[in-house]
Structures are given as structure tokens and as C-alpha cells.
Amino acid sequence: MRSTLPALLAIALLASCQKQEPRAIAVEDAWVRLAAVPGRPAAAYFTMKGGETPDRLVAIASPKAATVELHQGGMADGMMTMKPMTGADVAAGGETAFAPGGNHAMLFGVDPAIQPGGSLPLAFRFQSGKALSAQAKVVAAGDAEPGHAGH
Q1: Domain extent listing, the chain
Q2: The pTM is what?
Q3: How far is residue 23's CA from residue 93's CA, in Å, rounded to a whole number?
Q4: How many other CB atoms sit within 10 Å of the CB of residue 10?
Q5: Which of 7, 86, 91, 98 is the most buried (most CB within 10 A)?
């Protein structure tokens, strides 16, 4: 055992000296809430984590939806508002959330085979040319957000 301890320590030290990979932009916690009325648009929510440099989300697509639009949501004069947006900035090392009551993606013409408990593929395209994909968890209208059951 004594003879392997120095070798293990040397390996651990060498591993810690390796150059860190630059942090890349990422999409996390993607989920989709289906519409209460069949044929109406669904809404997608997610969090973008910024990489080493700022970037901008410019489009989302899905093979399971006819079109996907980015929308800015909020409140004005006590009323929920929604208007199309051309993109969303992601600061270097920052976080940009698309969440209920705020920014979101509207999915029009969702494949009727998509059901609660399943997943829906989303493809994210950024101004830098970076493309990411995510499997969004699907919930029914009125269900709690994933990870917030019982809250």
C-alpha cells in the first residue's frame, strides 16, 4: 500500500493541473406546458447559462412543432402582456431564464402524439452559430412545473 500512495498522489496532482475547458453556453431545465385546449399553442420554458463570451438566442425549432416563436411576457396595468421578440441575450457567465409569467417560447402546431410525462426535442440556435439541443419534459396544462411539485 505504501508504494502505491505516492503514485496515486502524483496522478491526483497531474489531473488537477490539466487546463480547464472554457465554459460553453448551455440550456438547462427545459420543459413544455401543453395547452388546455387541443390545437392551441404550448409554452416552453428553460434556463440559458452563459459561456465565456456573451451570446444571443436567435431561434428555437422542434421537429414536433410547426413553428416556435420567442415571446416576451410580463405585466402592464394589471394585465398579462405578451409580444414577439427577436432574440434573448445571454451574458458571459450569466443566466437568462424563460419562465412562467415572463419570457417563453410558444410552440404552434405541436404533434398530437406529444403527451404529458413524455419529452419534446428542442433545437436552440445562437447568434455565434452555436447550436444546442435539449429534451424538454412535457407537462399538462395546470400541472406543477417540473421540480416544483408540492410547492
Answers
A1: 22-139
A2: 0.81
A3: 8
A4: 10
A5: 98
CB 39 within 8 A of CB 65: no
Residues with Cβ < 8 Å from 67, sequence gap 6 or more? 107, 108, 109
Q: What cell does 71 get?
A: 415571446
76-117 pLDDT tens trace: 777 777 889 999 999 999 999 999 989 999 999 999 999 999
Residue type, 119: S
DSSP states of 64-100 as a string? TSSEEEEEEEEEETTEEEEEE-S-EEE-TT-EEEE-T
Cell numbers that stand for 145 in this block: 412545473
> 142's torsion region: left (phi>0), alpha (psi -120 to 50) or beta?
left
Task: Say if domain 22-139 classifies as CATH 2.60.40.1890.
Answer: yes
